[in-house]
Write a structure and sequence with these properties.
The complex is a heterotetramer of chains A (91), B (224), C (225) and D (534).
Chain A (H helix, E strand, L loop, with lengths): L9 H20 L5 H23 L7 H8 L1 H17 L1
Helix pairs in contact in A: 1-2
Chain B lengths: L10 H34 L15 H30 L9 E8 L2 E6 L12 E4 L1 E5 L3 E8 L4 E5 L4 E5 L5 E6 L4 E7 L11 E7 L1 H15 L3
Parallel strand pairs in B: 1-5, 4-10
Antiparallel strand pairs in B: 1-2, 2-3, 5-8, 6-7, 6-9, 9-10
Helix pairs in contact in B: 1-2
Chain C lengths: L2 H9 L13 H29 L14 H26 L3 H32 L1 E2 L2 E2 L4 H8 L7 H34 L10 H26 L1
Antiparallel strand pairs in C: 1-2
Classes of the chains: A mainly alpha (91), B alpha+beta (224), C mainly alpha (225), D mainly alpha (534).
The complex binds heme-A (HEA) (2 copies), dinuclear copper ion and copper (II) ion (CU).
Chain lengths: 91, 224, 225, 534
């Protein structure tokens, strides 16, 4: 249970998350851009927020490499799974 | 009762049976090697008093050999199979002049829609017959398959053709019958309690017979 | 030392240096569990994407059926509760159980409020005619469908995926609130967490942040896109 | 400290004073949980077998009243004649019970629970209470599944693969409650397996005895570990699908409902079971290649098994006989898999008895023979007694013969185009000539089932009257054989120290032909972890 690393500023991350959420809302309902652009930007913001939670709140940024690997292994699998499903409908 | 594959009733049959035999030979060899090996080892290396097993940490060379040979065989088999697969089910495999027949599957019957004398589906002279599939020999047939309810599967063993019929999808499949005669069309995907009797008769006619049948059927004296 | 004591030693704090990952059992177990949770939500989200891609027509535009404002507030609430959770963790790391209890209680309240608001949202939606099978006949939403404001062809899928995804997320939040309350009452209040031993807080925290993370994704793809 | 002294200490110094219910019913001891899984899954094996016998009656003698069938209610078999709707319930529940409630729990539930802590040298699983829940949710799942056979409309009837939309809508399948109970049961079972896998993974990673490095870990533990990892990743997806199916059934959602935009193929999750399903043919090609490539490791395994026997000194005990038969039979099933992996051939044999033959050769041949070997092998460590060897041999030979008589002819039926899951093959003119073969198969199947009575009796008899086993009746090297039989609660007083891998047979270092993992020879170094941990 060592905490060798410097503790991140949790309040700052909270501010980040709040601002990004506000940005998402503005983007989705106020910004006059095409739907595809909205889609891309919204997904980008969502992944950004998720990464903040994972890296700082769940401390992945500070964990041992083998635990980090364990945590990310399912992600590519999940993506492959979703892509395989989609490929069926694009032909 | 035959102990072998059924009559070759379509142009696919030769290719598929050929592949089947090729696999039979490959797996036959593997089978003999393994089973004979097992029997030999069982007899040769059975425990006898005072004997001790041979102490070894294995052989890398042996491992490489018995990995490489199956791997090469499988890849070769995959390439050959794929060649035929593309011819049979490939997206561009359906011959452009194929004769269209509509097949609508529902619990538990086959509704076969014929293009009528004009040879086109979706026109006024189309007509539908239940549980009877008539096709001319020697001419590619393209089936337009649709389902009313659940997944069914179109299967005529002599044609070596099978295609699932999936609700919500429009699926095409093609074949060319070669031997005139009467066969059976079965549903080969469990589709409910009547699955076992979801069956239709298949008549492969000579082209002349087929034209004659089409004329009669189109005039309404068709079927039963 | 009897073997029973040995068994306990291996599994409870102060966690001897184990021969594996150098991560104590409960934390490792939680990460493995989260791996399975990732796959579970991937299945739900994947299904949603497949169905939406292959849908027979347009999806309902965001903001018509669902009340974005109240959910945006809920999203913010969940983010806050994630911060309070991590504050509780930091507090006990610093050896301050009182502060830890305060932040943990705040987290529990945040989570419970989230669930409450979600239940309110569901009741509201169902009253308006939005149900898991689509749109209830004769309801307010059915009129919108009739007018063409909402696409008739895809409302069934919309209802199916919306209720399944948010419902399972809500279920996870509820489980989190229950386990945190349990830990609060049986461990935090009696003062069993110390600067040396706070595995329960760290582990439940991992779960809680994961649930927050999933919501971040769900909020975007279900409500905003 | 020698091993013998340590175990003696445990046997004497330890008295287990938990009440009966905590000891044998709601136990958190991994060994008791393993044994609970054993009894429950053998019971479901029996149920699956009984269902198979009824199917075989109908297939061999279609439309004739089944002996003893009179006791079945009108809704299943009026006058003892099996109804079509009952037949598909039989097929569905046979597959379901055999795969989900007999084979999977036997291979994983029993062996992972019983063996992992014993083989890696620890006191119990990492999370004993979660482990107990894993058993009880599997048990509940089994009860729900069993109960579904007795609800008014009968059990689920869409095949064990439960293809949607047949399974999703009650007007298609004709069963409502039965279908729902099936989904509920599978979700519970999925939960059980996830809890189990979680435990196995954590235990193997974290709780190995000093000196039990990854490369000294027995292959059986490796296999269970990998299975658990795959399970953790795959089961949630399956459970998710089962939940969506359940929601379609009870909440009226439309995941698998094509008219409302749902997708029938969503259920089938992709892969080589659906070459002719109407999916993109290019996908078919890639699945074919991957299926064939996956066959290569199986080939390697087969040759490794043979290599292990080469120049060995084989004692034909019951476990050994069954192990050799396992290799011999699995290979037949594996080779028949090659025909199906070649897509053009699969187009012909898909959903015929060729597939039924394949799956029984891999599942019965590859699993039941393994189990008929494994049960007598670890029986002593579970119960302290040996099973009867002569009766074991009789059981083995009869099973071997009748098993092949039952399942080999199914290849011929499949080549003739005999579809699976059909209630009455004589409906088809082209199948009528094959009825004698179906009769032959049925009679062989009855004899196969009857042979299992020998196993059953041997099992129960040996529990009480078998020969006391002693520490290491098979002269094996694994850690579990350093414990008394049966192994005591908590296993070891102090976890043992490991000095080598588990397969040192006929080592030149010792006169015996086996060399336990815990035996310290001059020159063996103490593992680093020991000094750190103690
Ligand atoms: C224990 C379970 C198990 C195992 C191990 C396997 C192993 C394999 N299976 Fe099987 N399979 C099932 C259980 C299993 N299967 C079940 C239950 C079904 C039916 C599901 C249903 O109800 O629909 C099924 C169905 C099934 C299908 C779908 C058929 C259809 O419905 O149309 C396919 C298609 O590719 C397939 C292929 C294979 C292959 C290629 C292997 C390979 O992994 C086999 C590899 C092994 C060997 C090849 C033998 C040893 C090797 C050698 C001796 C080396 C030399 C060999 C060569 C060079 C060829 N199986
Ligand atoms: C491990 C899996 C397994 C096992 C062991 C079996 C065993 C048997 N199976 Fe099974 N079968 C399947 C898995 C299995 N099956 C699957 C997955 C399907 C596909 C289902 C579907 O299509 O949906 C299937 C389908 C299937 C069909 C096709 C039905 C159809 O398509 O219409 C047939 C037909 O003959 C059949 C027959 C038999 C027979 C005669 C046995 C015999 O071997 C049975 C012999 C009896 C026993 C093995 C039980 C003995 C009991 C004990 C040893 C217990 C002792 C107890 C104690 C000591 C307490 N099975
Ligand atoms: Cu239609 Cu089976
Ligand atoms: Cu498979």
């Amino acid at each position: 249970m060592e905490t060798a690393h410097k503790r991140p500023n949790y309040i700052l991350i909270w501010v980040y998350l709040a601002v990004l959420t506000a940005a998402e809302l503005g983007l989705a309902f106020e910004l006059p851009i095409s739907r595809n652009w909205k889609l891309i930007l919204l997904l980008f913001l969502a992944v950004w927020k998720a990464a903040l939670v994972g890296l700082f709140f769940m401390h992945l940024k500070f964990e041992r490499w083998n635990l980090r690997i364990m945590a990310v292994i399912p992600l590519p699998l999940a993506v492959i799974f979703i892509l395989a499903g989609m490929s069926e409908h694009i032909w | 009762m035959s102990w072998w594959l059924p009559l070759k009733g379509s142009t696919f049959a030769g290719e598929i049976d050929g592949l089947f035999i090729a696999i039979l030979v490959i797996t036959g060899i593997a089978f003999v090697i393994v089973e004979a090996g097992l029997i030999w080892f069982v007899v040769r290396y059975r425990a006898r008093p005072g004997r001790k097993a041979f102490y070894t940490h294995g052989s890398t060379r042996a491992e490489v050999i018995w990995t490489a040979i199956p791997a090469v065989t499988m890849v070769a088999l995959g390439l050959v199979s794929n060649h035929y697969w593309v011819q049979i089910k490939g997206r561009n495999s359906i011959p452009p002049n194929a004769y269209p027949i509509g097949i609508h599957a529902k619990q538990f019957e086959w509704q076969v829609t014929y293009p009528g004398p004009d040879g086109k589906l979706g026109t006024a002279d189309d007509f539908t017959v239940r549980n009877q599939l008539h096709v001319p020999a020697g001419r590619p047939i393209v089936l337009a398959l649709s389902s009313e309810d659940v997944i069914h599967s179109f299967f005529v063993p002599q044609f070596r053709v099978r295609q699932d019929v999936v609700p919500g999808m429009d699926i095409k499949a093609w074949f060319q019958a070669t031997v005139p005669g009467t066969y059976e069309l079965g549903c080969s995907q469990l589709c409910g309690l009547g699955h076992y009797r979801m069956r239709a008769q298949v008549f492969v006619h000579t082209p002349e017979e087929y034209d004659a049948w089409m004329k009669r059927a189109a005039q309404g004296e068709a079927s039963e | 030392m009897t073997h029973a004591a040995a068994t306990v030693d291996q599994m409870r704090p102060p966690y001897p240096a184990e021969r594996g990952l150098d991560v104590y059992n409960t934390k490792l177990g939680m990460w493995v569990f989260l791996a399975s949770e990732v796959m579970f939500f991937a299945a739900l989200i994947g299904t949603y994407i497949i169905l939406r891609f292959g849908a027979p027509g347009e999806w309902a535009r965001p903001g018509i059926v669902l009340n974005i404002k109240i959910t945006a507030f809920n999203t913010f609430l969940l983010i806050c509760s994630s911060v309070s959770m991590v504050k509780a963790y930091a507090a006990i790391q610093d050896g301050d159980p009182k502060k830890m209890r305060f932040w943990l209680l705040l987290t529990i309240l945040g989570g419970a409020t989230f669930v409450g608001i979600q239940i309110y949202e569901y009741i509201h939606l169902i009253e308006h005619g939005f149900v898991p099978s689509g749109v209830r006949e004769g309801s307010e939403l059915a009129e919108l469908v009739a007018k063409g404001t909402l696409p008739a062809a895809t409302m069934g899928l919309y209802g199916s995926t919306f209720f399944t995804m948010t419902g399972f997320h809500g279920f996870h939040v509820t489980c989190g609130v229950i386990s945190m309350t349990y830990l609060y009452l049986t461990k935090a209040l009696p003062g069993k967490y110390t600067k040396q031993s706070y595995g329960g807080i760290e582990t439940v925290g991992l779960y809680w942040h994961f649930v927050d993370l999933v919501w971040i994704i769900l909020f975007t793809i279900v409500y905003l896109i | 400290m020698t091993t013998v002294a340590a175990t003696a200490q445990v046997a004497h110094g330890h008295h287990d004073d938990r009440p009966f219910i905590r000891k044998y019913i709601f136990s958190t001891d991994h060994k008791i949980i393993g044994i609970q899984f054993l009894f429950v899954s053998l019971f479901f094996l029996l149920v699956g077998g009984l269902l198979a016998m009824q199917m075989r009656w109908q297939l061999g003698f279609p439309g004739k009243p089944m002996p003893g069938g009179g006791i079945l209610p009108e809704t299943m078999a009026p006058g003892g004649v099996i109804l079509p709707e009952y037949y598909i319930q039989l097929v569905t529940m046979h597959g379901t019970f055999m795969v989900f409630f007999a084979i999977m729990p036997l291979l994983v539930g029993v062996y992972a629970n019983f063996l992992i802590p014993l083989k890696i040298g620890t006191h119990d699983m990492a999370f004993p209470r979660i482990n107990m829940w894993s058993f009880w949710s599997a048990f509940a799942a089994g009860l729900v599944m069993l109960a579904s056979l007795f609800v008014p409309e009968g059990a689920a009837r869409a095949g064990w693969t439960m293809y949607a939309p047949l399974s999703a809508r009650h007007d298609y399948s004709g069963a409502e409650l039965g279908q729902e109970l099936w989904s509920i049961s599978i979700v519970l079972l999925g939960l059980s397996s996830i809890l189990g896998s979680l435990n196995y993974i954590t235990t193997v990673i974290n709780n190995r005895a000093p000196g039990m490095t990854w490369f000294r870990m027995p292959l059986s533990v490796w296999a269970l570990f990998i299975t658990a990892i795959l399970g953790i990743l795959a089961l949630p997806v399956l459970s998710g699908a089962a939940i969506m199916l359940l929601f379609d059934q009870i909440l009226g959602t439309h995941f698998f409902d094509p008219p409302a935009g749902g997708q029938a193929l969503l259920w089938q999750q992709w892969g080589h079971h659906m070459f002719v399903s109407g999916m993109n043919p290019t996908l078919g090609s890639s699945f074919m290649v991957s299926t064939l490539v996956i066959a290569v490791p199986s080939a390697v395994k087969t040759f490794n098994w043979m290599g292990t026997m080469w120049r060995g000194n084989l004692r034909f005990t019951v476990p050994m006989l069954n192990a050799v038969a396992f290799v011999a039979m699995f290979v037949i099933g594996g080779l028949s898999g090659i025909y199906m992996a070649a897509t053009p051939v699969d187009m012909f044999i898909h959903d015929t008895y060729f597939i039924v033959a394949h799956l029984h050769y891999v599942l019965f041949g590859g699993s039941l023979f393994a189990l008929f070997g494994a049960i007598p092998f670890w029986f002593p460590k579970m119960f302290g007694r040996l099973m009867s060897e002569p009766w074991g041999k009789i059981h083995f030979w009869l099973t071997f013969v009748f098993y092949n008589c039952t399942f080999f002819p199914m290849h011929i039926l499949g080549m003739a185009g005999h579809m699976r899951r059909i209630y009455d093959p004589t409906q088809y003119d082209f199948l009528k000539p094959y009825q004698p073969m179906n009769e032959f198969i049925s009679i062989s199947a009855f004899l196969l089932f009857a042979t299992q009575i020998i196993f059953f009796v041997n099992f129960w008899w040996s529990l009480k009257k078998g020969k006391p086993a002693g520490l290491n009746p098979w002269q094996d090297n694994g850690l579990e054989w350093t414990l008394p039989s049966p192994a005591p609660h908590g296993n070891w007083e102090r976890v043992p120290t490991v000095y080598r891998g588990p397969y040192e047979f006929s080592s030149p270092q010792v006169p015996e032909d086996y060399l336990p993992q815990t035996r310290k020879l001059p020159g063996d170094r103490e593992p680093a972890a020991v000094s750190a941990a103690h």
